[in-house]
């Protein structure tokens, strides 16, 4: 299948590109940075996906994964949200499309983290539902994942800082973060196996949002 993924030069996007390639798919990657992937089925485009007019022409995309995103950059709304809208409107609405996935964030539910980042990801979940309803008559699945902490290079500053990591684990009921490989499992399932769930945002956060309430009752 023809898979288009944004943000494939690092972290989750790089792992996703490798996962789809390992399963024999043709992957088109869009990123600000160069790519380290050397595979005849991988096609890389050095592009800023928030620049609508710079997006390359790529025909007949079958699976689209909006993954590119930065935290607390100059303009998170432009970089994370508007880019996902531009990319989806350009590549998602074609007769070959079968599935679209958005990489949002658990912070879209909790509201914690940097203000513009939270707003960009919550906006992404709203836009995902809009796209899901427009594409539903064609049998296309459109969903988002809202991830808690992932063991990525970009999180090294907190992962390598003993005190921060301790605080994070205290607030994480399952006492761990997820691996990039586990994110790939979810994304692969939602875009390739799933045929009937659409318009859904899935929270995957080791219980951080749902399992932190306390039960108070007088003795
Ligand atoms: N790592 C986590 O814990 C975590 C948690 C929740 C959500 N997410 C989301 O997952 C996605 C990937 O995160 P990551 O940790 O792999 O980040 P990362 O910084 O390691 O990789 C992001 C990639 O996207 C690219 N990119 C960013 N803006 C771009 C743009 N405008 N145009 C083209 N390329 C662009 C970067 O160059 C980079 O290669 C992000 O959207 C992030 O918000 C990550």
Strand-helix topology:
Layout: E1 2-6, H1 11-22, E2 26-31, E3 42-46, E4 63-66, H2 76-91, E5 99-103, H3 107-110, H4 115-135, E6 141-147, H5 156-159, H6 162-170, H7 180-193, E7 201-204
Parallel strand pairs: 1-2, 1-4, 2-3, 4-5, 5-6, 6-7
Helix pairs in contact: 1-7, 2-4
This protein binds nicotinamide-adenine-dinucleotide (NAD).
Nicotinamide-adenine-dinucleotide (NAD) binds at residues 6-7, 9-13, 30-33, 48-50, 67-70, 79, 83, 103, 105, 147, 149-150, 152-155.
Characterization of this structure:
37% of the residues lie in helices and 16% in strands. It is of the alpha/beta class. It has a single domain, classed as Rossmann fold, CATH 3.40.50. The N and C termini lie far apart (60 Å). The protein binds nicotinamide-adenine-dinucleotide. Nicotinamide-adenine-dinucleotide binds next to helix 1, strand 2 and helix 2.
Features:
globular, 7-stranded parallel sheet, binds nicotinamide-adenine-dinucleotide, 37% helix, 219 residues, alpha/beta, 7 helices, Rossmann fold
Short description:
The protein has helices at 11-22, 76-91, 107-110, 115-135, 156-159, 162-170, 180-193, and strands spanning 2-6, 26-31, 42-46, 63-66, 99-103, 141-147, 201-204.
The CATH topology name reads Rossmann fold
Sheet with the most strands? Answer: 7 strands, parallel
- What is the arithmetic mean of pLDDT? 97
CATH superfamily: NAD(P)-binding Rossmann-like Domain
**Total of helices:** 7
- Strand count: 7
Domains counted in the coordinates: how many?
Answer: 1
């Amino acid at each position: 299948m023809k898979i288009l993924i944004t943000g494939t030069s690092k972290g989750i996007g790089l792992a996703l590109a490798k996962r789809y390639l390992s399963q024999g798919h043709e992957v088109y990657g869009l990123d600000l940075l160069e790519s380290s992937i050397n595979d005849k089925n991988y096609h890389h485009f050095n592009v800023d996906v928030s620049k609508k007019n710079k997006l390359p022409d790529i025909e007949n995309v079958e699976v689209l994964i909006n993954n590119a995103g930065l935290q607390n950059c100059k303009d998170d709304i432009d970089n994370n949200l508007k880019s996902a809208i531009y990319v989806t409107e350009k590549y998602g609405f074609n007769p070959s499309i079968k599935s679209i996935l958005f990489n949002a964030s658990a912070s879209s539910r909790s509201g914690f983290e940097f203000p513009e980042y939270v707003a960009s990801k919550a906006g992404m979940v709203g836009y995902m539902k809009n796209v899901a309803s427009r594409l539903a008559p064609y049998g296309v699945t459109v969903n988002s994942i809202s991830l808690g902490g992932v063991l990525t290079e970009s999180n090294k500053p907190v992962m390598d800082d003993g005190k921060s990591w301790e605080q994070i684990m205290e607030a994480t009921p399952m006492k761990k973060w997820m691996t990039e490989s586990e994110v790939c499992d979810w994304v692969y399932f939602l875009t390739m196996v799933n045929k009937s769930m659409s318009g859904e945002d899935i929270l995957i956060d080791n219980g951080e949002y749902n399992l932190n309430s306390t039960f108070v009752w007088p003795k």
